[in-house]
Amino acid sequence: MLTIFTTAKPFRRHTGIIQRNALQSWKALHPAVEIILFGADEGAADAAQELGLHHEPHVERNEHGTKRLDYLFARAQLIAKHDVLCYVNCDIILMQDLRRAIERVHAMHREFLMVGHRWDTGITEPLAFERYEWQTELRSLHEAFMDRTYPRLCCASSGITGLFGKRWIRGSQSSMHRAW
Questions:
Q1: Which of 26, 46, 122, 123 has its CA 20 to 30 A from that of 171?
Q2: Is there a domain that residue 143 lies in?
Q3: What is the pLDDT of residues 144-154, one digit of tens each?
């Protein structure tokens, strides 16, 4: 199965809504998915408790106060319940096609690295994840947003990656630094 790890911005206003939406979408992937939320930013502990996530408040920071991603990756590898780990920005909604893609790649390769990119969609309120159709509705919302935002382009991409997935073999010589 899968462990997803992330760090968040403070859970305030619109940022709080989109981060909660993202975390709830990850929980909807499968009941056995583990989610680790790193950081002691405002609202992180409350969101983790409310959603039943593993909360790791301590995060090492550099001299400028920026969270160190190398620390997050190393710590996640150490504490994860599962061998397949996925770092995702905390505002990225995941759908079942990601889980299916990971299962297909995992069936073919002992170790692997997957990288994805985001879709931009104008979401301003909490999504109803209890609705069976939420993924179809979200895809339609994305298409309408793209039609309004980029009407003359055949395709548009932010070029920003918000998703990294890797399978580590515990105790192997695979190094996070080599892989990333």
A1: 26
A2: no
A3: 666 666 554 44
Domain that holds residue 108: 2-120+160-170
Give me the residue label for tokens 């710590």: 75
CA separation, residue 164 to residues 29, 54, 55, 65, 105 (Å): 16, 19, 20, 23, 14
Instruction: Quote the pLDDT of residue 84.
Output: 93
- The CATH number assigned to the domain holding 110 equals 3.90.550.10
Residue 134 lies in a domain: no
Structure confidence by residue, pLDDT tens digits, 70-92: 999 999 999 999 999 999 999 99
Residue 45 lies in a domain: yes
Q: Which two tokens stand for residue 100?
A: 């299916």
Residue 160 tokens, joined: 């920003």
Percent helix / strand / coil, the chain, rounded to 5: 35, 15, 45
pLDDT at 51 over 70: yes
Tally of domains within the chain: 1
pTM for this structure? 0.78
What value does the mean pLDDT take over residues 123-140? 77
Residue 106 domain flag:
yes
Q: Over the Cα atoms of the chain, what is R_g?
A: 17
Residues ≥6 apart with Cβ < 8 Å to 104: none
